[in-house]
Amino acid sequence: MDISKLAPWNWFKKEEEREGSTLPIKRKDSQALSHYSHPMSQLHYEIDRLFEDVFRGFGFPSLGIGRGFPRIAQTDWLKPTLDVGATDKEYTISVELPGVDQKDVHLELVSDTLQIKGEKKQDKEERDRDFYRIERSYGSFQRVLSLPEDADRDHISAVFKNGVMKITLPRKALPQIGTKQIEIKTG
């Protein structure tokens, strides 16, 4: 029995390593966080922030906790969501890129990683307009996916349609690792 088939491939290994290597910066002189100076207030704020992050991870809208106060680290403002699937013949990755033009998306194969880079550009409006609230994000984004050994790096294809990029990676047969008996001699 091949146990490796039971454990799925960690496509996000390199991305997680990269995110784990950044340290959040906390400024002591921030006036916005001055009333969080008491340890119990800090604990309350952090628990609220934790719950907001959990609910946002399930697709719920922001609860508005800490609104107006800067977050310590906001690395996923523009982090496109994606689905990874597999059959016996290929891997498929669907990346949601709403509001992003195809010409602003780049797909690169770097060593054993597939890098999806791009930019969501803000439309320039000449009219004077007062906004009550702006929730849309603009800027650059990047996703880094670790490729499994059996992904055929020479035949990767991508199609961009209706704000979704579908990447197809054919699977190739890996050489079988056989068992070799080694003769033990009497010495």
TrEMBL record:
Annotated Pfam families: HSP20 (PF00011)
SHSP domain location: 73-187
Keyword Ligase: no
Keyword presence, Metal-binding: no
Keywords assigned by UniProt, alphabetized: Stress response
InterPro entries: A-crystallin/Hsp20_dom, HSP20-like_chaperone, Small_HSP
Recorded family membership: Belongs to the small heat shock protein (HSP20) family.
PANTHER family for this protein: HEAT-SHOCK PROTEIN 20 FAMILY MEMBER (PTHR11527)
UniProt-recorded name of the protein: Molecular chaperone (Small heat shock protein)
Organism: Desulfomonile tiedjei (strain ATCC 49306 / DSM 6799 / DCB-1)
Lineage, top ranks: Bacteria, Pseudomonadati, Thermodesulfobacteriota, Desulfomonilia, Desulfomonilales
